[in-house]
Design brief:
The chain has 313 residues and is an all-beta fold. It has a single domain, classed as Glycosyl hydrolase domain, family 43 (Tachylectin-2, Chain A, 5 Propeller), CATH 2.115.10.20. The chain is built from no helices and 21 strands.
Length: 313
């Protein structure tokens, strides 16, 4: 996202070394910001206020919500995605959006959609002059659609210290082959032209991840780089948010020794917390509402980074 300063690190094997995970005793109660279906949230801070975007729901292809302050009140105000991309199924849903702003002021909305030809999930992009849209799909082909990935989803952008733009995403290999992985791909200043080879950042190599890592989001602290991600299957109460850290831009990323957000750590107040996004001292995430598996609401907790370690409350 445009407010973060982040970097790419090389692929590593995460088997034995771990960083410390913060104590959970001081966790406050999560704040429910949107009590209706608003999954896979992406939150953007702008001079005009805060904007949040979600996966397709009954509110539209790309629901957008607005607020004047991080804690709200939040209100769903419309559909950010103004049209169906030429390459995508109209009824396939558009997942896990991410919005960033380019140097020329243009806003870019990244999303996952089902390709008409075969139903494969691919990444697309759309542009707008305002953060709430409407966003117009760019081009008649997906931005990222790697055959061996068996689906690419969950785009997230970041900008490194020299202004270079990268796109993070998940290769959804867990159902058909290798475990899922998270990748970084350099993009040019227009936000829509890929540059150079991609780099693997993280792979689902822990038992509790159930071959799934997804929903990447990277935060630069004073001297470390933290990659937040979700793991396990999203329908399960075991779905959780974890993180890995690196001391330098060169890595290596090391997974924390315990999950960061879980149903248990939050005292059962949020069922399956995932899809996390960290913005301006707040961590936003979704969780199942009402004990069912039909809608995921938007939640928030304050977050800080004492000693370059994430801490809630």
């Amino acid at each position: 996202m445009s407010i973060k300063s982040l970097v790419v690190v090389p692929v590593i094997v995460l088997l034995a070394a771990f960083t410390a995970c913060p104590a959970t005793a001081a966790i406050s109660a999560p704040r429910l910001l949107i009590g209706q279906d608003f999954p896979d949230p992406d939150v953007v801070k702008t001079p005009d206020g805060y904007f949040a975007f979600s996966t397709s729901t009954g509110s539209g292809r790309g629901p957008v919500a607005t607020a004047t302050a991080p804690e709200g009140p939040w209100r769903i105000t419309g559909d950010a995605l103004g049209a169906v991309p030429a390459w995508a199924k109209p009824d396939g849903g558009f997942w896990a959006p991410d919005v960033t702003q380019l140097p020329d002021g243009t806003f870019v909305l990244y999303f996952s959609g089902a390709r008409t030809a075969d139903g494969e999930m691919c990444l697309g992009a759309a542009t707008a002059s305002k953060p709430a849209g409407p966003y117009v799909p760019a081009g008649d082909q997906p931005l990222v659609c790697v055959p061996e990935d068996h689906g690419d989803i969950d785009p997230q952008t970041f900008i490194d210290a020299d202004g270079t733009r990268y796109l993070l995403y998940k290769s959804d290999g867990s159902a058909t082959g290798a475990p899922a992985a998270i990748w970084a791909q350099k993009v040019q200043a227009d936000g829509r032209t890929l540059a150079g080879p991609r780099t693997e950042l993280l792979r689902a190599d822990l038992t509790l991840e159930k071959a799934v890592v997804e929903a990447p989001s990277v935060v630069k602290t004073a001297s470390r780089f933290l990659l937040f991600y979700s793991a396990d299957t999203f329908q399960s109460s075991g779905y959780h948010t974890a993180y890995a850290s690196a001391p330098t831009a060169a890595g290596p990323f090391v997974k924390a020794d315990a999950p960061f957000l879980t149903t248990e750590l939050l005292g059962g107040k949020v069922d399956a917390p995932g899809g996390a996004d960290v913005v301006d001292g707040h961590i936003y995430f979704h969780g199942w509402l009402g004990g069912a598996r039909t809608a995921r609401g938007l939640y928030e907790l304050p977050i800080s980074f004492p000693g370059d370690v994430p801490q809630l409350g």
